Description:
The chain starts with 10 loop residues before the first helix and ends with a helix. It folds into three domains: about 10-125, no CATH class; about 155-270, no CATH class; about 290-450, no CATH class. The chain is α+β, with helices and mostly antiparallel strands. It has helices at about 10-20, 55-65, 80-85, 100-110, 155-165, 195-210, 220-225, 240-250, 280, 285-315, 320-330, 340-360, 365-380, 390-400, 405-445, 485-490, and strands at about 30-35, 40-45, 95, 110-115, 120-125, 170-180, 185-190, 235-240, 255-260, 265, 445-450, 450. Helix 10 runs antiparallel to helix 14 (about 390-400). The protein is elongated, with a radius of gyration of 29 Å.
Amino acid sequence: MEDAVTLLAPLARNLDILRSRLGAPRNADVLIRRFQSGAFESAIVAIDGMVSSQLIDENILKPCMDLPCGAGEEIAPQERAAYLMKSAVSILPMKMKENIDEILADVLGGQCALLCEGCGIACVMDTRGFEKRTIGKPEVEHVVLGPHESFSESIRTNITLVRRIVQREELTTEFISAGGKMKTRCALLYLRGTADEKMIEAIRARIEGCTYDFPLTSGEVEQLIEQHPLSLLPQVVRTERPDRAASFLAEGQIVVLTDGSPAALGAPATIFHQLHTPDDASMRWQYGTFMRLIRMLGMLIHVFLPGLYLAVLRFHPQLLSPMLLTSVYESSSRVPVPLFLEALLMTLAFDLINEAGLRAPGAMGGAVSIVSGLILGQSAVSADIVSPLLLIIVAASGLGGFCIPGYAMSIGLKIVQLMFLTAGAMGGLYAMSLLLVCLLCALCGMESISSPLTAPLAPPRRANPDILLRLPMRFQKARAFFAKRRSESSGRA
């Protein structure tokens, strides 16, 4: 019985198969209720705690059990489930299925299955009733201007949040099951006629090709979508804000939602998507451009400043004034640790303090970061373990790292920072320049869903003037370069 692929005609045999697959009656969470529905017998299969008992009682059980004794007598056995859907059941989201694996996946996801005697087709209805977190404020993507709603762990709620903003008939939602035995439900959202069909198919194929036997989060789905797993920079943009996900759809991107994860993934993406924030579009163009330039400056300071400090002191001291050079050498002469090791330890200590502040419970995180920074910094300078100028360099570099909008992007750039720190210590500005050229060449050769990661700058593509500088809204009328061209969509229509 366990080898059956589709439902059979006898109700008792179908229930025996489902009991065996679900481990009932030992599995106490499995709910199976047999009842008389008119002239034939039916049954409900669900998982306790995942469904709404009130919804099942009032919209399925009571209407079916209230049917007259001879109701449905003239209906063919194979049409009995459809007859109940038409005559008794009053739940809107429903699908007719006969594959046992698909039925079990839906039941385990919080839906219920209605089976009838003599019918090899089950009706799967959305009766989810488990507890879920209410809509709150974004925890990572804070904004001064703009909406203050964030995604939750419920995929249905997240889709509703996006649809409330994008009220267009072209908005399409596709559900995909990813994984092996423990399947995770994902949703693809895109605008028909705007998103490129080849990119949609590529994302769909990569998610459906996953065979891992554990539940997937949005971060793991992101790793399925990306093309370059060895890259230090993300190739998919992540957001917890429905308004930003809506802007992805308008640009022709595909949004991927994962059940149980309060984040949306936008693909394809460029490197510039990782550097933009929702505040940029909510403010006037002058303010948004200024804050974006400040953010870019902070990112450059974060990546290059420690390496430049080592490169200048070790290989190019002539670039500094004699007075400043004398002060630096005087303070460094009392430090027994080599300059490179000193800079490396201080950079890692700053990252350690930052990580401890993030993981500390509640309001303790901010206090841990401040107290640890003050104590370690002052004590290290007083004990002549680090020089005061190096402490300023590391603090300025760490402060610039906080300007990077995305958490994943900031971690990738921390690794790049250590690479430039090592290059500056080993070969000075020449080694740093060579490393920069190599990284830029590698970046220009990367793609996100067959779309260049550095476009529309390299290679040049037609795009809105909203890359590094943001011009007024009257100029923001072009579609993104990876969206389907208007001529293509009109020709195919």
